[in-house]
Amino acid sequence: SVPNTTTATKAVPALPDAQIVTQVKHYTDRLFSFRCTRPASMRFRSGEFVMIGLMGDPNPETGKVKPLLRAYSIASPNWDEELEFYSIKVPDGPLTSRLQHINVGDEIILRPKPVGTLVHDALRPGKRLWFFATGTGFAPFASLLREPQTYEDYDEMIITHTCREVGELTYGHDLIEGLKTDELLNEVIGDGFWKKIKYYPTTTREHSPKMGRITDLMRSGAAFADLGVSVLNPDTDRAMICGNLAFNIELKAMLEEYGLIEGANSNPQHYVVEKAFLD
Ligand code: A2P
Question: Which intervals hold domain FAD-binding FR-type (predicted)?
Answer without folding.
Answer: 13-121
